Amino acid sequence: MTKKILLVEDDITLGDLIVETLERRGYAVTWYVRARMDKSSTTPALVFMNDRGVETNFDAAELQDVVKGYEFALVDYRLKASAMEGTEVTRELTRRGVTVIGCSGIPYLNKELIEAGAVAGIEKHEIFSRVLKGDHLLHGLTLQRL
């Protein structure tokens, strides 16, 4: 069974590289570069945008099986040109039952993502070294809660 990962990373070059690396190891990756809350309806909805500008309503009823199918989400702290920062995205994803791993190049920012609800933090360069060694991304991480 293919492991599905949600990636929220604004850097196009790095996002491409993370997706390619994870897919070569058998992961199915859904990648978004921006996030916002759509408050136009009675129930606010979490909306993601991919690198081509296509938006996806993460709360749409038809996506609920997809949302529940993610093993975890990798969320960057700084999301340039996004209405939401990584801490806000982390809170919203964990509210929806998605396990989040903070993914920043700066350790103290991962701590902030953990405070927002992430179960762990991983520096971006660690993603490549773990996956290329054949390790599971969660292997060896100190999980705050799961």
Question: Can you characterise this structure?
Answer:
The protein is an alpha/beta fold and 146 residues long. The chain has a single domain, classed as Response regulator (Rossmann fold). Helix content is 32%, strand content 27%. The chain contains 5 helices and 8 strands. Strands 2-1-6-7-8 form a 5-stranded parallel β-sheet, with helices on both faces. A 3-stranded antiparallel β-sheet has the order 3-4-5, with no helix packed on it. Helix 4 links the parallel strand 7 and strand 8. It is globular, with a radius of gyration of 14 Å.
In short:
The chain is of the alpha/beta class and 146 residues long. The protein has one domain (3-132): Rossmann fold (3-Layer(aba) Sandwich), CATH 3.40.50.
How is the secondary structure organized here?
Blueprint (H helix, E strand, L loop, with lengths): L2 E6 L3 H13 L2 E6 L1 E5 L6 E5 L5 E3 L6 H5 L1 E6 L10 H10 L4 E5 L2 H9 L4 E4 H9 L14
Parallel strand pairs: 1-2, 1-6, 6-7, 7-8
Antiparallel strand pairs: 3-4, 4-5
Question: What are the key terms here?
Answer:
single chain, alpha/beta, 5-stranded parallel sheet, Rossmann fold, 32% helix, globular, 146 residues, 3-stranded antiparallel sheet, 8 strands, 5 helices
